[in-house]
């Protein structure tokens, strides 16, 4: 069981003085913004031309190129491309003509049965590449639970290539 009752405190602690980046890592799109934003600042396709790890974000894949995906079945498949995306996202949200944040919190989604290797990679990337001070990684169902303050519910998360039904009873994932 995973206790989710403390998740509510995440949102209470997000303030303007310490930026909190929100990453929703999907197989089709990666949505990113700051906790203070009304909606995601960036919605980036997970697809890119196979073998072109530094393909610019927001650019259309040429029709003669075979697409490859950074994330499939809820886990990162191409770490080189993922590192390029994370660095590009950071540079987009915190441009080089502005000072980098002294403190940085990161909140990320992951699917409920994520492998230890994937979790280790995500945490390592957040701390080393993005220079985060703290990171929270939880399935989207737990964030939805917090939003609606429901201690018991069934949360349905429908994605591009994976769907999860997550039962939650008395603030615990069953």
Please describe what this structure looks like.
With 174 residues, this protein is of the alpha+beta class. 26% of the residues lie in helices and 30% in strands. The protein has four helices and 13 strands. The protein has helices at 7-13, 79-93, 116-129, 140-148; strands at residues 2-3, 20-25, 29-34, 42-45, 47-49, 67-69, 71-72, 75-76, 105-109, 134-138, 153-158, 163-169, 172-173. The strands form four sheets. A five-stranded mixed sheet has the order 4-3-2-9-10. The protein has a four-stranded antiparallel sheet with strand order 1-13-12-11, with helices on one face. Strands 5-6 form a two-stranded antiparallel ribbon. Helix 3 (116-129) links the parallel strand 9 and strand 10. The longest helix has 15 residues, at 79-93. It is globular. Residues 1-5 and 7-12 have low confidence and may be disordered.
């Amino acid at each position: 069981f995973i206790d989710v009752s403390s998740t509510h405190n995440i949102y209470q602690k997000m303030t303007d003085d310490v930026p909190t980046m929100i990453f929703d890592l999907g197989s089709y799109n990666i949505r990113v913004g700051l906790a203070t934003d009304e909606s995601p600042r960036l919605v980036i396709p997970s697809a890119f031309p196979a073998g072109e790890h530094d393909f610019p974000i927001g650019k259309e894949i040429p029709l003669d190129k075979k697409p490859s995906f950074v994330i499939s079945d809820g886990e990162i498949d191409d770490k080189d491309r993922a590192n390029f995306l994370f660095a590009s996202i950071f540079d987009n949200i915190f441009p080089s003509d502005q000072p980098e944040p002294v403190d940085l919190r990161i909140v990320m989604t992951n699917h409920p049965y994520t492998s230890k290797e994937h979790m280790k990679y995500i945490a390592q990337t957040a701390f080393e590449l993005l220079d985060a001070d703290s990171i929270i990684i939880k399935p989207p169902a737990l964030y939805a639970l917090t939003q609606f303050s429901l201690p018991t519910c069934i949360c349905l998360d429908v994605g591009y290539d994976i769907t999860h039904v997550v039962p939650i009873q008395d603030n615990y994932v069953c």
